[in-house]
Amino acid sequence: MTDQLPHEYNRPGLLWDNPKGVVTRVGNQEHGGLYKPPQFGRDIERLLNGLVEWHQQLIEERIPALIRAPLVHLYYELIHPFWDGNGRVGRVLEAALLQAEGYQYTPLVQSRYYLEHIHTYFTLFNTTRRQTEKKNAAPNTDFVAFFLEGVLVSINNLHDRVNALIGLVLFENEIKRLHDDKEINVRQYAIATQVIAAGKPVALSAMRKAPWYQALYIKLTDKTRQRDLKKLRELGVVVLDEVNQLLPGCSGVGK
Predict the structure, then answer these.
(1) pTM of the predicted protein model
(2) CA–CA dist 119, 141 (Å, integer)
(3) Residues 189 and 65 in one domain
(4) Residue 33 has what pLDDT?
(5) Whether pLDDT at 243 is above 50
(6) Whole-number average pLDDT of the chain
(7) Which is more confident, 9 or 145?
(8) Are 83 and 204 members of one domain?
(9) How far is residue 28's CA from residue 186's CA, in Å, rounded to a whole number?
(10) Roughly how many angstroms between the first and final C-alpha of the chain, as a whole number?
(11) Strand, helix or coil for residue 27
């Protein structure tokens, strides 16, 4: 829980025995206040063993992995057994539990969701702790809901990426067909493939300065250049956005 936060969020502590009385405190006011996790090895060992036993009980009670994994992650962070790196270890534990249940892709992108919402992620640890201290019912609900929201967002993102890749492959096949059927010429085909290969919008002015583009029209007039681009746009092979950047026609952007 201390990793990837500002330096003041990290305080020195001792993993097992604390003979010098150094106190580990986790957190800052920005993320819900300071928290004093367990300080001594015997307490930490007892709590970790209890967490393992509790997780086994959840398995026996047929609690789904999508609930068990974030709960283990949450309570591991609150036990806080290491000086540093607890967040990374907690996320690895969560991912391992999910992968053990057959979730192949979600664990790989869930950490990214946490990092993209880092302030909410860390604040929820303190939210859970305060709700527990107040003896509120189901104090861990907000963290589990946050995790499940991340899973949904991650799955939707993966779904969109796969659809985009499939769409791009189909689009490339259609461009090849247009070329094979002589509906577009060699120059037009080259422009289309270069725009696709760029993987990002291509400024029309920059493309016109590119050596490969100039080589296409070394003995041709500007009128021919304009005619080629017009044909590609009419066929929907490329589109031109509001700032004169070219994109593949499958991007759905343009004018």
Answers:
(1) 0.68
(2) 18
(3) no
(4) 60
(5) yes
(6) 85
(7) 145
(8) no
(9) 62
(10) 48
(11) strand
